[in-house]
Structure formats: C-alpha cells, structure tokens
Amino acid sequence: MTAGAGQARTVAVLGVGRFGALHARVWREAGARLVGFGDVDTARLATVAERFAVPEVDTDPRRLLDRVGPDAVVVASDEASHVELTLLALQTGCHVFVEKPLALSGTDAWRVHDAAARAGRQVVAGQISRFAPPYARIREGISAGRVGRLCALRLRRDFSRSWFLSFGERVHPVWESCVHDIDLAVWFVGRPVRRVVAMQSGAAGNAAAGVVAALLEFDDGVIATVESAWLVPDSAPQTVSGALELAGSIVGEGEVLGLDGVLRQRLVNDALVEWTREGVRVPDLSLWPEEDGMVGGALRREVDYALAVFSGKRPHDVVPLQQVCWGVQAAEAVVVSLATGKPVDVPEPASTAGMGRLR
Ligand SMILES: NC(=O)c1ccc[n+]([C@@H]2O[C@H](COP(=O)([O-])OP(=O)(O)OC[C@H]3O[C@@H](n4cnc5c(N)ncnc54)[C@H](O)[C@@H]3O)[C@@H](O)[C@H]2O)c1
Fold first, then answer.
1. CB-ligand 1 contact for 291 (6 Å cutoff)
2. Coil vs helix vs strand at 2
3. Does residue 220 line the site of ligand 1, with CB under 6 A?
4. Cα–Cα distance between 105 and 83 in angstroms, integer?
5. pLDDT tens across 18-54, in order?
6. How many CA atoms lie less than 13 Å away from 79 in the CB half-sphere?
C-alpha cells in the first residue's frame, strides 16, 4: 500500500485514546498532516503528541482549533462528547470525521445533521463496517437483486468480557456494539426503522446490559434481529491485536434473507490461525490489519473516503448522514425499550428540532 495520493489536508484529532491514536496514524499514512491534538487527559495528550511529534496540544478544544485552524477534525473522544465537539468543529468551519456513535439520541443526531448542512461542511460518521469487504459485498448483493426481495436480517456481534469489565459501563453497551449492526441493518434496508422491542440480561455481572437482543421492524416490513453479548472469554481466539492498543475479540455474524437467496458472513474465520506463545489468534484482516507497515483494511478505506468527501472528490454516498441519524434513532429506541421492557415506536425521521419524542 502507498500513502494516499489525495490532497493532503490538515487535521486535528480530539480524543487521542486507543482509537484516536490509531486514527492519527491512519490519517497521517493517508496523506493528511496532523496539526494538533486535544484531550482532557494531559498525560495521555503529552504521550501521544510526542509519539507523533505534534507540537500543538490543548485540553480546551476551542482554543486548539482557533490556534491551528485545521481543514478537518477527527473526533475520537468518549461517546458523550461527540456531539459537542462535532458542533464546535463545524462552527469553526471544519469538516468532521466523528467516531461512532454520532450521538446518543436521535434529537442530537439530527442537530448535527442540520448544523453540517447550515455550515456547508461534511460530517462523516465512523460506521467502519460499511468499509469492510464482506459487508460491502452483502450490500452490493442486495442492490444487485441477488437475494430478491429482502425479508429478514440477523446480525450478531459479541465482544470480550474483559472489555465489558474495563469500559463496558462508560456508555450503554448498545452504543458500543449494537450500533454497528443497527447501522448495517439501516444500510442494507435503506429505510428507517419503525418499531423496536428489546430485552437485556445483567448476567454479565454488572448493572449495565452485557447481553442485548433487539428486534427491529423497518417501515417496509423487513425484520432485523440485532444481538450482542460481551461474554467472549480470554481463552477464545483473539481477533483484535496489532495496530490497536487493545487485546480481545470481536465475534460477528450476519445473515441476509430474501425471497431468492441468502447471504451469510462470519467475522471470525479460519483463513489465518496463529497458535503461538501469545495464545491462539485469528487476526481480523478486514478492520485494521497492518500491511507493509501501514494500517489497511476498512479503517484505511474509511479515512480515504472521508478525505475524498472533504475535498469534494466524491459524493458522500457510502455513509450518508441521514442514514446514520436513522440508526441513532433506532439505537435510542432500543435503549428505551430495554429500560421500559416495552415496544417503542421510532418517531418519524426529522431534520428539524420539532422531531417527535419516543413513545
Ligand atoms: N469504529 C470502531 O470499530 C471503534 C473501535 C474502538 C473505538 N471506537 C470509538 O472511538 C471512540 C474512542 O474510543 P477508545 O476506545 O479510543 O476510548 P479511550 O478511552 O481509549 O479514549 C478516549 C479518549 O477521549 C478522551 N476524552 C474524553 N472526553 C473528552 C473530551 N470531552 N474532549 C477530548 N477528549 C476527551 C479521553 O481522555 C481518552 O483519552 C469511542 O467513541 C468508541 O466508540 C470505535
């Protein structure tokens, strides 16, 4: 792989934790110039700034953006700060790449959508799975009519139990794991979700839901199941290692069922298995594998996409913000259903503040 030939852009990264630091690497490898880092953790900020030789750092994001005036901002901070930092970056005239979840409520997601339109700037939400080849091929297969009329989706994503114990309660686990599959479901169906019912189990040992099962009904009648359990033991094959400062496993499965065919995907497969002193590894080769000393896979494709969208070189058609807002609305409905134990009607999608409330 070679460094991106595209126009180099200046980029500031807000939130330089595990994934923010990986983003910094990938944006630089893709041809962007890193001009500033922001984080509320001064020790982490200093460590990552030194690693990337980025001189401009600040714990105050507004001060940082005013000082360095980047073309684009990468928001990779804690989930609860995504909306505030994205709106700030838009106000200062920047394009924004914001990690998932875009927002923790439908209302906030549409606020970002509207603010981007008003500012005339692009917001790319980090729904990385849309850039992973198996999912992209499923999407193409649906568009090409290979399964005929779409009837049902089954999507499942399990995470390491050790992750749950370390950061599983930072935000409702739905926003960490299910949000990927809810977004994939919206992408595959291309329609908003109408109704949701979900159940959870606290069996993973914490007050938060380590086990979630949700049923989504789309407005054209397609049904999707989205399941997640943060119960993968350390003894399971390790899939996430290498480029990301986090060891563990993501075990995902998906099925798309139509009148004329079925498409099936497994995130863990045995194409490459390593049995070494470090244990058993089945390195994921689709999300952020290292290839020739650079990070490739879906993450690099996602960053190349964002750079091309920001430069006006391609349409923003892989992760349109409207669809991401539909996904956030559905994820919020799942969280409400989990809390109340009742089905939830998802309000009509709206791009204005007058959006209806969840019932
Ligand atoms: N797309 C994916 O597959 C994927 C994978 C991992 C993480 N993520 C997302 O990336 C984001 C970061 O996750 P992580 O694993 O790196 O977490 P992390 O805890 O390692 O890093 C978060 C960083 O944000 C900083 N931070 C918190 N509040 C802030 C604020 N208001 N302003 C600036 N910095 C702030 C923290 O100090 C920390 O350094 C999350 O939204 C997560 O969901 C996405």
1. no
2. coil
3. no
4. 10
5. 999 999 999 999 999 999 999 999 999 999 999 999 9
6. 19
